[in-house]
Write a structure and sequence with these properties.
Length: 436
């Protein structure tokens, strides 16, 4: 405090300030001081953001650890040779935009693989804590790549995979096909055998929620294409527009911008309304696909616009599958969980169940299904700039959709009906040549 007071006195009473006040009588020194203070605080905020950003985003550490494991024969993968030997896979800009509050699970980079722009995701627990001493790395590998153990047969490994998938996705009849696909993916050299390094790599990857979902939803056109992997690092296609809105406000600025300003910026930079309708149709198709999918049900636990993107053709793409969880994950989360209020039964930002206040434990069913939460997001996104001749009808459908209750006995029927009504309404409107 003394230093701050001394600084004020220096600014107010220094000869420069007096001279400036004489030259510019309309400018008061206190406003100059406030402006200077604002610049100072802004510079400090930027410095703190980017210093922590650079501390977290150490791509060379991630690459060093991965390549050390690869050269020692601990891991394998379709991208290992290009990353570690031929420099055909290059990590570039770090996209982990909120390093201070980010859950330490993955580092995300843009990159180039054989001349094509890609997204690279690397498990960061080791990279963040690494002391850059390769001699200590094998001790970390014992924990990360401890399964399967040497001597495990192919039949035993398949049984391991099936048991894991049942625990993660539920006892689905189609899991045998998924096990076959995973085995084929692990077999890098396509010799119809899975080496220990190949098995350890695919097992470590399956422990990452997003990778598990990429594999489970690989038949869906609304998720990013999985291109390759090396150990617990994996590569996906780059989605050109990684937010519902063209403008993505950095996290460190969100708190400084009033919600009214953020809303205006979103509306200003959003795609034209017909294109927004096209993106929405794809989003609704995705919600329908994961409601009761081939490998179980999935829930979107963060409907933030930054998790939802699209490509150059305005086809919807789910950017961040780490915010999507399986039904089994939610059940495990809520099982025996103590609560006082419904808010105590919240997974992520948007998945909330009811609290049984008699036994003070969470129920396992969500209050709102995916569709109701998505309709809440779409209300602002779709209604702004919508054609006036059907805006009221669209608003009615969205408001009805937002009241959809996950606990209702006829929820499945209502879910399908509402989803199809909104999708049909939008499709009819943009099919009109006037909006193409």
């Amino acid at each position: 405090m003394r230093g701050a007071r001394r600084l004020v006195h220096l600014v107010v009473f220094c000869p420069f300030s007096r001279a400036l006040q004489k030259r510019l009588p309309g400018v008061k020194v206190k406003y100059l001081f406030l402006m200077w203070l604002g610049i100072l605080l802004g510079s400090w905020a930027l410095y703190m953001h980017y210093s922590s950003y650079s501390e977290l985003c150490r791509g060379h550490v991630c690459q060093m650890i991965i390549c050390d494991r690869y050269k020692k024969g601990i891991i394998s993968g379709s991208a290992c040779k290009d990353l570690c030997e031929e420099s055909k896979l290059l990590l570039q800009q770090c996209l982990s935009s909120n390093p201070v509050n980010q859950v330490l699970d993955l580092l995300v980079y843009s990159g180039v693989w054989r001349g094509k722009e890609v997204i690279i995701k690397c498990g960061i627990e080791d990279a963040f804590r690494a002391d850059l001493n390769p001699e200590t790395l094998p001790r970390r590998d014992l924990a990360l790549f401890d399964k399967p153990t040497r001597g495990t047969s192919m039949d035993e490994f398949k049984e391991m995979l099936l048991k894991f998938l049942k625990a993660s996705l539920g006892d689905q009849q189609s899991l045998g096909n998924l096990v076959t696909r995973i085995i084929r993916m692990a077999d890098i050299n396509q010799d119809k055998k899975v080496s220990l390094a190949e098995a350890k790599s695919i097992w470590a990857l399956l422990q990452l929620n997003e990778f598990l979902l990429l594999v489970s939803l690989h038949e869906k056109e609304h998720t990013a294409q999985l291109l390759g992997f090396c150990g617990d690092l994996y590569i996906t296609e780059k989605i050109p527009y990684h937010s519902l809105y063209s403008l993505k406000v950095p996290h460190f600025l969100e708190a400084a911008l009033p919600s009214v300003v953020q809303k205006s910026l979103n509306q200003w930079f959003a795609p034209a309304w017909p294109k927004r309708a096209e993106i929405t149709i794809g989003l609704l198709e995705f919600v329908e696909e994961i409601f009761h999918g081939t490998y179980g049900s999935f829930y979107i636990c963060d409907t933030d616009p930054s998790n939802i993107g699209y490509n150059e053709k305005y086809d919807f793409k789910m950017v961040n599958l780490r915010k999507v969880v399986t039904e089994m994950t939610l059940k495990d989360f809520y099982k025996g969980r103590h609560c006082e209020h419904n808010t105590d039964c919240t997974h992520g930002k948007d998945c909330m169940a009811t609290c049984d206040k008699l036994v003070k434990q969470c129920n396992t069913e969500l209050i709102q299904p995916n569709l109701a939460k998505i309709c809440g997001l779409l209300q602002e996104y779709l209604l702004h700039g919508a054609p006036s001749d059907f805006r009221d009808e669209l608003q009615r459908h969205l408001q009805t959709c937002m009241t959809l209750n996950g606990l209702a006995s006829q929820m499945e029927v209502h879910h399908s009906l509402l989803l199809n009504n909104i999708r049909t309404l939008l499709w009819k409107k943009i099919s009109n040549t006037k909006y193409l």
